[in-house]
Amino acid sequence: MVPGQKELSYDLSRHRLQHLNLFVEKGLLRQFVFTGGATVFDTNVGNHRHFIDEPSGKIYDLPWDSLAVSKIDALKGFQVRDYHV
Questions:
Q1: Does residue 79 belong to any structural domain of this protein?
Q2: pTM of the predicted structure, to 2 decimals
Q3: Domain for residue 30, yes or no?
Q4: How many domains in the chain?
């Protein structure tokens, strides 16, 4: 290993993460943290759903109206702006 290589790699990763977080803050990306701590950044910031193929780990975008979640209106006292199934 080249002296300082690990530190340089860490600094670049931290720098990239700072940029990604800035894009999330500006509404250019959406960030999802999944069970187990995996973080994914999504460039599709419009309303849509995700289908995750667990064996491959691939994430697919689905049109918002392709699935229906019922009884959200029954949650009295809450304003639902987003949900995950």
A1: no
A2: 0.61
A3: yes
A4: 1
